[in-house]
């Protein structure tokens, strides 16, 4: 493999990932692996990854910005896995692969004779096989399709998000898909560590359902202990006060006051001597029980304050406070400069983690459909005549 084609740095340099996934959770997982040095081969169906079309906005490449957000650093080809010779190409690519990631409907790989237990485990004993799905393939909901917003609704996330006046609301980012991508990556990395000891691969499963339920901290534990179903609190916290959004003269801020020491500093700074002397607010339990009256006092104190100066002063005192920024405002913060990636017509978000000895780095721009077909197949041992035959029989869809 040419040095130009695969990142040579990063903690995962030398790993080969075959990525059959589409949309968000799987592609985000494999993008994070690519950012840290893995060679990720993205294999798309003849119709392509549907996120290429989910715009506007569209990038200069013609693909939606959505696609670019989770597919940088990869090489791409397209295979028709319903075609026997398409499956033969996949098996050839798995000969030296470390990880396979797929998010087909449960049972799809088995219909193609590619399921892990019956077909791949014996042939590729070191392979880590990661299956991402909505509900898994067993249990009362096994085999059903899963979508982020539906899982937010089914698993109680919407029931704790929103104001009482408007009712349950979808969280504004695809948080279940996003965390499922991280869950899948964590499982893959754990399996790779275990393989270092045993020499054997294994199947890793990540489901949107389990991931969504795992997000219910502390709401699930609160309900299990108290028997009281969580209710809509807007931006407030069920266990802490004041931990909420408040209005300043020029916009909203969020206060995250966790303990008595922070509360005293907050009141001292704002001149809230009467609040500080009120026994109702001396400790968190009391502040929580009297959150409405406490809110009134805080709102009156903040009404004529400018939010940037207020938040800067409070943070300097060790009192958590921040302006409620828009997305452009968030990336305009000087501290966010390293988290924006721009170049060669690509715009994206940088790596959230940093390793001091083996740092990752954003990879190449997201691939065009089937962009690296010849390069990948030649590395796998296919000569030009055989590649032409695969195109002619339909196993290898042409680039569009």
Automatic annotation (TrEMBL):
InterPro entries: CoA-transferase_III_domain, CoA-Trfase_fam_III, CoA-Trfase_III_dom3_sf, CoA-Trfase_III_dom_1_sf. It comes from the Bacteria. Keywords: Transferase. GO terms for molecular function: CoA-transferase activity. Gene3D superfamilies: Crotonobetainyl-coa:carnitine coa-transferase, domain 1, formyl-coa transferase, domain 3. The keyword Transferase applies. The keyword Signal does not apply. Signal peptide: none annotated. This is Carnitine dehydratase.
């Amino acid at each position: 493999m040419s040095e130009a084609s695969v990142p040579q740095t990063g903690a995962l340099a030398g790993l080969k990932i075959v990525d059959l996934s589409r949309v968000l959770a799987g592609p985000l997982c494999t993008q994070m692996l690519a950012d840290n040095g893995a060679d990720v081969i993205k294999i798309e169906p003849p119709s392509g990854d549907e996120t290429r079309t989910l715009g506007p906005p569209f990038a200069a490449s013609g693909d939606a910005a959505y696609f670019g957000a989770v597919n940088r650093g990869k090489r791409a080809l397209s295979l028709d896995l319903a075609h026997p010779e398409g499956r033969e190409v996949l098996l050839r690519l798995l000969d030296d692969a470390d990880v396979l990631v797929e998010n087909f409907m449960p049972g799809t790989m088995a219909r193609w004779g590619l399921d892990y237990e019956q077909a791949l485990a014996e042939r590729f004993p070191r392979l880590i096989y990661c299956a991402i799905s909505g509900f898994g393939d067993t249990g009362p909901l096994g085999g059903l399709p899963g979508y982020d917003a539906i899982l937010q609704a089914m698993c109680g996330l919407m029931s704790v998000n929103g104001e009482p006046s408007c009712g349950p609301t979808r969280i504004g980012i695809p948080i279940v898909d996003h965390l499922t991508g991280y869950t899948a990556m964590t499982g893959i990395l754990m399996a790779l560590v275990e393989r270092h000891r045993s020499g054997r691969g294994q199947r890793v499963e990540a489901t949107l359902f389990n991931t969504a339920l795992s997000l219910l901290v502390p709401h699930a534990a609160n309900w299990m202990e108290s028997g009281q179903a969580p209710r809509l609190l807007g931006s407030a916290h069920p266990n802490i006060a004041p931990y909420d959004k408040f209005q300043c003269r020029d916009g909203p801020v969020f206060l995250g006051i966790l303990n008595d020491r922070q509360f005293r500093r907050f009141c001292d700074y704002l001149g809230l001597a009467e609040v500080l002397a009120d026994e109702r607010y001396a400790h968190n339990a009391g502040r929580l029980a009297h959150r409405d009256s406490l809110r009134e006092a805080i709102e009156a104190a903040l009404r004529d304050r400018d939010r940037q100066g207020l938040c800067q002063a409070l943070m300097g005192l060790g009192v958590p406070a921040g302006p409620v920024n828009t997305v452009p405002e968030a990336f305009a913060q000087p501290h966010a400069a390293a988290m924006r990636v721009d170049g060669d017509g690509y715009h994206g978000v940088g790596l959230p983690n940093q390793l001091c000895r083996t740092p990752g780095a954003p990879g190449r721009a997201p691939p065009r459909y089937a962009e690296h077909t010849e390069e990948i197949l030649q590395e796998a041992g296919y000569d030009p005549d055989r590649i032409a035959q695969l195109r002619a029989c339909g196993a290898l869809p042409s680039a569009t």
